[in-house]
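note to self: dont lose this again. the chain is below, predicted strucutre after it. 121 aa total, dont forget to put it in the shared folder this time
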Amino acid sequence: MPKVLYVEDHPAQRDILAQMLELNGFEVAVASDGLEGVEKAQSWLPDLILMDLRMPKMDGFEAIKVIRSDSTTQSIPIIAISAWASAKHKERALAAGANEHFTKPVDLNRLLTTISRYLKE
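---
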């Protein structure tokens, strides 16, 4: 069962998407901020990370950079998910090391297709 780490500070959004992922055959762990996300990525070593960008303690941009700088986590695919829809934020997420950027609300079918593509690589 593929392991997905979902880092999101809003509990309702986190719970809904986590449940959808579980219903689609993924083992899901969650974190509520970037710092906790980095720690879980390093200890749990997920197959893929979904990362919100705007969070307390450590934002998603910084968390992505930390994950990319660690040899044990640097190759894990990261999909940034944010309410920020501007090209500037997408470019910033990709520059930090995200593989993809999705805008909220997320198109679940498109997200599942993208996750599957990265897990096959």
